[in-house]
Design goal:
Distance between the termini: 15 Å
Structural class: alpha+beta
Shape: globular
Oligomer: single chain
Number of strands: 11
Strand order of the largest sheet: 2-3-4-5
Strand content: 15-25%
Mean pLDDT: 90
Order of helices and strands: EEHEEEHHEEHEHHEHEE
């Protein structure tokens, strides 16, 4: 199963999604695709096999599909959030583009579909299976995050009064997060709080340190990393193998 889209809109298999009301559940059950706002998660429309849209929200003026998208460009979004280009690229962070296609790689800890780039999805499944064989369960906390959703995370923190500097020490600026590329995973283990430094004391982290490299995953933000990001023992990113390296089984 695939996720398609770039920017503010994403197209998802309707069978994977859950509706809050009976009408939405019925619509999802009778359509192959769901069109969703990537920033807010709002369900916009179902899409049938002939690419015909059936709106899930009513009201001609307020429906997101009938409005001009605000802040479509990164520069506009950064200005809204108070981010300068020098802030976004601090510490040598590189821009990361969204892929147009992602593969379903299972579900995360919260039961949400886990979307990853195709090769990263295969690598994650192989790595998780190998860890299971060694008696070490690995849980995905999150995978792909769109630029729009990253902006929404920072927008919420700004509303709570947090400074840009404190936010960017934890969350990369929109357009610069490794999660945008579909190759990064936040990994946890059952019974452990998600995305906490205490993860480094778990058997899962010890296993990843010893074995993740065999599957192409690297720890992105070790202690005292040059990017100025806080230590994140849970954040691992898949990197393409060097020329001539053995490919992972499909």
């Amino acid at each position: 199963m695939r996720r398609l889209g770039q920017g503010r809109l994403e197209l998802l298999p309707a069978t994977l999604m859950r509706g809050r009301g009976l009408a939405t559940q019925r619509a999802l059950a009778n359509a192959p695709w769901l069109l969703r706002d990537a920033a807010t998660g709002v369900y916009l429309a179902t899409v049938d096999g002939k690419a015909q849209l059936a709106l899930l929200l009513r009201g001609p003026a307020s429906h997101p599909l009938r409005q001009r998208p605000a802040g479509a460009g990164l520069q506009v979004l950064w200005r809204e959030l108070g981010i300068r280009h020098s802030d976004a690229a601090a510490g040598g962070l590189r821009p990361c583009a969204e892929p147009t296609e992602l593969w379903l790689a299972g579900r995360d800890r919260y039961g949400r579909p886990l979307w990853l780039a195709p090769q990263a999805a295969r690598a994650w499944r192989s790595m998780r299976t190998a860890a299971d064989r060694d008696g070490v369960p690995l849980q995905a906390i999150s995978g792909f995050r769109s630029v729009a959703y990253q902006g929404e995370i920072i927008r919420r923190k700004r509303r709570r009064g947090l400074s840009v500097e404190s936010i960017l020490a934890v969350n990369a600026a929109p357009g610069y997060s490794e999660h945008h590329g579909g190759r990064a995973l936040d990994i946890g283990s059952p019974g452990e709080p998600p995305a906490e430094e205490s993860f480094e004391h778990t058997a899962a982290f010890a296993w990843l340190q010893a074995n993740a490299g065999r599957f192409g995953f690297r720890l992105s933000y070790p202690r005292d990393n040059p990017h100025g990001i806080v230590y994140e023992p849970w954040h691992w990113c898949w990197h393409p193998p060097a020329a001539g390296a053995l490919a992972l089984p499909r």
